[in-house]
Amino acid sequence: MKKYFFALLLLIYFNLFAFQTGEKLTFVVKYGAISAAKATLEINEITYKDTIPCYQIISTSRTNSFFDKIFKVRDKIESTVDKDKFVSYKFEKNLKEGSYRQLRIHMYYPEQNISFYLKYSREKKQFKEKRMEIPDNTQDILSALYWVRKQSFSVGDSLFINVTVDGRNAVTKVIVHRIETIKTIFGKKECLVIEPVLHGEAIFKQTGKIKIWLTNDEYKIPVKLKSKIIFGSFKAYLREAENVPYKKIKD
C-alpha cells in the first residue's frame, strides 16, 4: 500500500485569484466504507532566500487510530513556488507509510533549467545528489495541482503540465470529462470532473483511474476524489475549508 496515500494526496488537487493565502482544505479519506485517514492541503506566503515572494504549499496525511493498526501513515509534503512566475523552487517529500520511509528533496533553478535531486539513504544515513536538466515551466506535484486550479478550461479540454519529481521529468495530461452536480459541504455544487493521466515514465505507478471534482467557478475548489487501484478504491471528501469564498452548511 505504500505510495498510494501519497498518490491519493497528489491527485486531490488554480484563475489568478482562485485561492487565498491561508486557504486550508481538510479531507476525509475512505477505503471502501471505512474512514481511514485525514488529509490536508494548506497554502501560505513566505519569502524564499530572503528576497523572493513565494507560496508555500503543505500537504499532510495521517491514518486514524483504527487504520493505524492496519497500515499507519504519517506523510508531509512541502512545495515552494514563485508567487509571480508560478514555477517551483523547492519540493520536499517525507513519507512514513507502514515500515516504508522516504525522504527526497528537489531544488529547482528554473532560470538555468536544472534541478538538484537529493535522495536520502537510510542505510548510509546521507543524501545522494543528482544534477538533472528540467524543461521550462517545471512544476512539482503539489504546484502542478494548484497550477491546474489557476487555469480556465471547459468540458472536452486537455491541459499538459511539465512535472519534475523523484529525479524524473514527466508530462501530465489533465482531461476535463464532464460537468456534474454533487452534494458538498457548501451545499449542491456544479463541478468539473477531471482526470490526470501520466505520460511517459510515471512519477508514481498509476494502476487505476483517478478522478477529481472541482467546483465549476473561478475558485475550482476540490471537493471530491475517487481512485480505483489494484486492491480496491479510495474516495476523499472535503470536510472542512478555511479562507474560502463559501460557507460550510451545517449538517
Topology:
Elements lengths: L3 H8 L12 E8 L2 E15 L3 E12 L1 H4 L5 E9 L5 E10 L2 E10 L4 E8 L4 E8 L7 H10 L7 E8 L2 E17 L2 E13 L10 E6 L6 E8 L2 E11 L9
Antiparallel strand pairs: 1-2, 1-14, 2-3, 3-4, 4-5, 5-6, 6-7, 7-8, 9-10, 10-11, 11-12, 12-13, 13-14
Task: Describe the overall structure.
- The chain is mainly β and 251 residues long.
- The protein has one domain.
- The chain is 9% helix and 57% strand.
- The protein is built from three helices and 14 strands.
- It has helices at 4-11, 65-68, 141-150; strands spanning 24-31, 34-48, 52-63, 74-82, 88-97, 100-109, 114-121, 126-133, 158-165, 168-184, 187-199, 210-215, 222-229, 232-242.
- A 14-stranded antiparallel β-sheet has the order 8-7-6-5-4-3-2-1-14-13-12-11-10-9.
Question: Which short descriptors sum up this protein?
Answer:
251 residues, 14-stranded antiparallel beta sheet, disordered N terminus, globular
Count of individual beta strands: 14
Low-confidence runs: 2-16, 200-207
Count of DSSP H/I helices: 3
User: Taking strands numbered 1, 2, ... along the chain, how are they ordered across the largest sheet?
Assistant: 8-7-6-5-4-3-2-1-14-13-12-11-10-9
- Mind describing the biggest β-sheet? 14 strands, antiparallel
Approximately what portion of the residues adopt beta-strand conformation? over 45%
Structure classification: mainly beta
Instruction: Name the overall outline.
Output: globular
Mean pLDDT: 87
In whole angstroms, the N-to-C terminal distance is: 33 Å
Number of domains: 1
Helix content: under 10%
Radius of gyration, in angstroms, nearest whole number: 18 Å
Which H/E pattern describes the elements? HEEEHEEEEEHEEEEEE
